[in-house]
Specification:
By secondary structure, the protein is an alpha+beta fold. The chain has eight helices and nine strands. The strands form two sheets. Strands 1-2-3-4-6-5 form a six-stranded antiparallel sheet, with helices on one face. The longest helix is centred in the middle third of the chain and has 19 residues. It is globular, with a radius of gyration of 19 Å. The two termini are 24 Å apart.
Length: 316
């Protein structure tokens, strides 16, 4: 899995003891323990705020992903509220291309989220491994993967509350490690930990930026309180550009340079040799419009182009 606390995350460094001295800060439970009716099997991912475990239900159903907040953060009100927001937002989105939230609970004062367990790897992991092997992924496969991811994002963007009003959900951290490739062939978007929504309890502080720098839309950097679904379309454009070219678009080891690149760098065309279908070139260029008004009308529109092109190229 990708994202904070999910397997496959490359941005997170090795575990180090908490500076607070809490020995259990990053180890809320151990294999064999029972949490909310689930038996913990093994740790499958760790991030800056949470740890994810494979867990087995008592009714012999399929294994689940059990995401627990770090115990030291359970003492921080804002962290508890953000974790609750994540569960509430993700639970509303019901779509085959979004990881399902199955329930929530608390274990010894530590909140947890129960989610479906995706057997597979993140898109980021697969791309990295293929590159290490000196191989490449077919263009049609990239497009088929991103079409499903776009469908999942569209479902999030179109999610409504119990009164039928749009929830205005924006993922805000769309990146290759938050796109999961299941062995079943299903692609799923994961990790709504920093997602924005109309009724979210926690709000981004003035001047604070949420997400991963290399995939942030310019407005997320310049005006982070004024972000809508079009920021996720920008991220899709960056991911598509990088997947097809095999290069990084904005990333630099220096954060300041990455930020400058996102806001100012001239964006090279996706391809100039005719290897990429014209509709794909156009939609990726539109996703990467620094003026939000120039981006596609929806993630569904992006999905339609990618899916059609993938099918024309022979992807089934």
């Amino acid at each position: 899995h990708g994202g904070d606390g999910w397997p496959g995350t490359r941005e997170i460094g090795p575990h180090r003891p908490s500076e607070t001295g809490l020995g259990l800060a990053m180890n809320p439970v151990a294999p064999g323990e029972t949490v909310g009716g689930y038996t913990v099997v093994e740790e499958v991912g760790r991030g800056s705020t949470a740890t994810v475990f494979r867990a087995r239900p008592g009714d012999h159903g399929p294994d689940v992903a059990l995401k627990l907040l770090r115990p030291d953060l359970a003492l921080v009100e804002s962290a508890m509220t953000m974790f609750a927001d994540e569960a509430q937002i993700a639970a509303r989105i019901v779509h085959p291309n979004v990881v399902r939230v199955l329930g929530t609970g608390e274990h010894d004062g530590v909140p947890f989220i129960v989610q479906e367990l995706v057997e597979g790897f993140s898109y980021g992991e697969v791309r990295s491994r293929v590159a290490e092997l000196g191989r490449s992924i077919e263009l049609s496969t990239h497009l088929a993967i991103l079409a499903q991811a776009a469908e999942g994002l569209h479902a999030a963007h179109e999610t409504r509350d119990e009164h039928g009003a749009l929830s205005n959900i924006v993922h805000r951290d769309v990146k290759p490690h938050n796109i999961l490739l299941g062995f079943s062939g299903r692609v799923k978007v994961v990790d709504f930990g920093v997602a924005a929504a109309r009724d979210r309890s926690t709000r981004t502080a003035t001047g604070a930026t949420k997400g991963t720098l290399a995939y942030l839309a310019p407005e997320q950097i310049l005006s982070p309180r004024d972000v809508d679904r079009r920021a996720d379309l920008w991220a899709l454009g960056v991911i598509a550009w990088e997947g097809v070219t095999g290069q990084r678009l904005f990333f630099d080891k220096m954060d300041g340079v990455t930020i400058w690149n996102v806001v100012h760098r001239e964006i090279p065309p996706l391809a100039t040799d005719g290897s990429v279908p014209e509709p794909v070139l156009r939609v990726v260029a539109r996703c990467l419009s620094r003026k939000r008004e120039g981006r596609p009308p929806s993630a569904a529109a992006v999905a339609e182009v990618f899916e059609s092109a993938a099918a024309a190229l022979g992807e089934t």
